[in-house]
Amino acid sequence: MALIINTKFLLLFFFFLLSCLSTVLASQEDDRIWALPGQPAVPFSQFSGYVTVDDHHGRALFYWLTEAYTSPHTKPLVLWLNGGPGCSSVAYGASEEIGPFRINKTGSSLYLNTYSWNREANILFLESPAGVGFSYTNTSSDLKTSGDERTAQDALNFLVRWMSRFPQYQYRDFYISGESYAGHYVPQLAQKIYHYNKANPQIINLKGFIVGNAVTDNYYDGIGTVTYWWSHCMISDKSYKTILTHCNFTAEKTSKICDDTVRYAINHEFGRIDQYSIYTPTCPTNSSSTVRHLRLKSTILHRISGYDPCTENYAEKYYNLPEVQKAMHANVTGIPYKWTSCSDVLLKYWNDSAVSVLPIYKELIAAGLRVWVFSGDTDSVVPVTATRFSLNSLNLKINTRWYPWYSGGRVGGWTEVYDGLTFAVVRGAGHEVPLFQPRRAFTLFKSFLEGKKLPTS
């Protein structure tokens, strides 16, 4: 009798598991991208859609998963975040940096990125926070109250719920990556996951993070940025000395003489350059209309130019096509505005911004996470000098002294390995390192995933 009861119980449990599995698979299939308009054939799967992160306010974040070219079931999962605050990971990370596709100049078709990061990992792009790109909120006041804390919590909620929809990624090696103001997002989310894992089953198997040209510490970012301007002959000795004397990089508000001097330097001393890549041309259509938000107290990215300086314009054409939105299961609620690369509202009303994330670095390095920081050396907005000042303040022990690293038979940049952190400079790269130097960025990423030092020859 006991055997019969146990058998019935096992059968019922088995059918219950099958039911749960079929529900999960159906949910995944609802998010499958069969093909994007103008997309070349690819051997990997794609999924995109929404995950609600706050039921009460109706905040939902949009994601795009591009699985690995080969062995997606065993390769790690990497989350990519763009900064701003208020800029889209679909517009930048996915479409002009590390994603599998680039957008043609017509804004209507795609071509393959030879050095896409999903050749080494499953890449998950997230438009965060709500109000960025296709991500939305049903509570309009949310757009004027976003900040670091809520962004990190919503991203954690997203991951927990997303992994319920995609349980095959639970317990998988997981890394976070990003650039610019994601210098806040990435370590803050890593810290949230680290604390969450202490109190819950560790379905998010966080192994580390890698972040580039990252906003890190208001004081060191400010000093480092002005030093870069001066050392690269972008500003006069007079402006440099006045800024150092009168600008308080950690104050909530700066003085009038500080603001006036910075404004003068940008408008009259810089010249018409792309501040995110000082040696490449600007886009003719954007030269007078693109607004750059440079805050010395917290250097913030708004609009980015690339090696093709007009590439951002192609994204704004492509992702507003109704057939593209349909294929990506995007804009299903009828968002009352066009998809844009960045949200001016979020940037203007950003509610809270940490003065420094260096204490988080200390905590997560001590926890044994793999931490890499890289800098393109032609970016004047969050420049390499700012990052070096920030990292030097950690006083980490040097394990491997400064040396040149190589990619494609040429010097790809320079690196130094510390106890718990690797710093790398990418030669000839602007703010969006994988856009300007895709091969070197790919070498960097591959070395990071493998936990190996950058190649010495």
Walkthrough of the structure:
The longest helix is centred in the first third of the chain and has 29 residues, at 2-30. The strands form 2 sheets. Strands 1-2-3-7-4-8-9-10-13-12-11 form an 11-stranded mixed sheet, with helices on both faces. Strands 5-6 form a two-stranded antiparallel ribbon. The chain has helices spanning 2-30, 90-97, 148-165, 182-199, 218-231, 237-246, 256-269, 311-318, 322-327, 344-348, 358-366, 384-392, 433-436, 438-450, and strands at 32-33, 46-54, 59-66, 77-81, 101-103, 110-112, 122-127, 173-180, 205-214, 370-376, 398-407, 410-418, 421-426. By secondary structure, it is α/β, with parallel strands linked by helices. It is globular and about 90 Å long. Helix 5 (218-231) crosses helix 12 (384-392).
Map the helices and strands.
Layout: H1 2-30, E1 32-33, E2 46-54, E3 59-66, E4 77-81, H2 90-97, E5 101-103, E6 110-112, E7 122-127, H3 148-165, E8 173-180, H4 182-199, E9 205-214, H5 218-231, H6 237-246, H7 256-269, H8 311-318, H9 322-327, H10 344-348, H11 358-366, E10 370-376, H12 384-392, E11 398-407, E12 410-418, E13 421-426, H13 433-436, H14 438-450
Parallel strand pairs: 4-7, 4-8, 8-9, 9-10, 10-13
Antiparallel strand pairs: 1-2, 2-3, 3-7, 5-6, 11-12, 12-13
Helix pairs in contact: 2-8, 3-4, 4-11, 5-6, 5-12, 6-7
Task: Give a quick set of tags describing it.
single chain, 457 residues, alpha/beta, 11-stranded mixed β-sheet, two-stranded antiparallel ribbon, 13 strands, 19% strand
